[in-house]
Amino acid sequence: MKIYHHIDEFVPVKNAVVTIGTFDGVHIGHRKIISRLKELAAASGGETVILTFFPHPRMILHPEDENIKLITTIAEKASLMEQLGVDHLIITPFSRDFSNQSAEEYIRDVLVKKIGTKTIVIGYDHRFGKDRKGGLEDLLRLAPEYGFEVLEIPEQDINDVAISSTRIRTALLDGEIDIANECLGYPFFITGKVIRGDQLGRQLGYPTANLMLEEQYKLIPSDGIYAVRVNVEGKDYNGMAYIGHRPTVNGMTRNIEVNIFDFNQEIYNKQLRMEFLHFVRHDIHFASLDELVVQLGKDKEDVLALLVLDNPQFNT
Ligand SMILES: Cc1cc2nc3c(=O)[nH]c(=O)nc-3n(C[C@H](O)[C@H](O)[C@H](O)COP(=O)(O)O)c2cc1C
Ligand SMILES: Nc1ncnc2c1ncn2[C@@H]1O[C@H](COP(=O)(O)OP(=O)(O)O)[C@@H](O)[C@H]1O
């Protein structure tokens, strides 16, 4: 997959089959649209193109705005689309100039001239151009003149897409990982760098790699303990993760930590990818570290039991 960080970098391709959208999470609804795109491209000997906007204007105007939380970072989105076999991903900033184009200019200059659109797959409610005045009706009106075809994504499918994104965000914030994963079609994951903590974990017998996320707009699931799968330097491990303020030790920051099973390596500054499989329990304020350690032993048993349920062949 080729990635372009501005629409101007794109060189028109043969029979471009195009769709436009945010695609946050690249969930099952998005996957359906992407497979449709691929079928159309295959049938016409064309290439699939996704146009997405990043950063969102709200992110530029209010970088401190804590409310913008996305299921996937732009890098994660690109990697998921690549796995799905998308040919071209254009990530263009949602600038003032861009949003000030009239609907007709947008169709002519962006879709036709810059992308070379032959087929556009678009939701019934998609708006574009200055004051969001453009829509499906403009695409249909100008299609014969510019020689492209318009395929409308049915209302039901668009609603499914919107419902899924909201549902996934809510589920993650409620610790309902199973629901989020079902809507995503793959396990929710985060990526980050291992940073130093208080070095207390190893003394408790449970070293925990502390993660620093790359992007502050990434949605972090609710506080609690999770069964996870961790990828370090290309290898997968099981583990138990913790998200919270560590009330037992009066922690000040919201930590994301993971104790990796059957693992004993120093991995400070390494990149780690963590998939969330199940929610295990809520955060607890223990009266002593001894009680926390007893609970950590139980957590490990609970996580291993969940992994056996997922995969009866799993050998603890
Ligand atoms: C599976 C798991 C469950 C945890 N549960 C709790 C908890 O319920 N309450 C709490 O205060 N801290 C909890 N912690 C966090 C520990 O307090 C933390 O790992 C310990 O303070 C070590 O921190 P360090 O990595 O900064 O050295 C948990 C950690 C793990 C890995
Ligand atoms: N099984 C393991 N799980 C997680 N981290 C481990 C493990 N074994 C060794 N480590 C290393 O130990 C560090 C965690 O130990 P810990 O005492 O909790 O220190 P810190 O407070 O700096 O995270 C990790 O960052 C990693 O480099």
How is the secondary structure organized here?
Blueprint (H helix, E strand, L loop, with lengths): L1 E3 L11 E5 L7 H17 L2 E7 L3 H5 L12 H10 L4 E5 L3 H4 L3 H13 L1 E7 L12 H11 L2 E5 L1 H19 L3 H8 L4 E7 L5 H4 L4 E5 L10 E9 L2 E10 L10 E6 L10 E11 L7 H22 L6
Parallel strand pairs: 1-4, 2-3, 2-5, 3-4, 5-6
Antiparallel strand pairs: 7-8, 7-12, 8-11, 9-10, 9-12, 10-11
Helix pairs in contact: 5-6, 7-8
Enzyme class: transferase
Protein name: Riboflavin biosynthesis protein
GO molecular function, one term: FMN adenylyltransferase activity
State the CATH superfamily name of the largest domain. Answer: HUPs
Query: How many domains make up the coordinates?
Result: 2
Structural class: alpha/beta
Give the CA-CA distance, first to last residue.
39 Å
Spatially, the strands of the biggest sheet line up as: 1-4-3-2-5-6
CATH third-tier fold name of the largest domain: Rossmann fold
Q: Helix count?
A: 10
Strand content: 25-35%
- The stretches of 5 or more residues where confidence is low (pLDDT under 50) are none
Average of pLDDT: 94
- In percent, how helical is the residue content? 25-40%
Number of beta strands: 12
Sum up the overall morphology in one term.
elongated
Q: Specify the CATH class of the largest domain.
A: Alpha Beta
Please give the CATH architecture of the largest domain. 3-Layer(aba) Sandwich
What binds here, in terms of ligands, is: flavin mononucleotide, adenosine-5'-diphosphate
Gyration radius from CA atoms, angstroms = 23 Å
Catalytic activity: FMN + ATP + H(+) = FAD + diphosphate; riboflavin + ATP = FMN + ADP + H(+)
Keywords: ATP-binding, FAD, Flavoprotein, FMN, Kinase, Multifunctional enzyme, Nucleotide-binding, Nucleotidyltransferase, Transferase
EC number: 2.7.1.26, 2.7.7.2
Function: Catalyzes the phosphorylation of riboflavin to FMN followed by the adenylation of FMN to FAD.
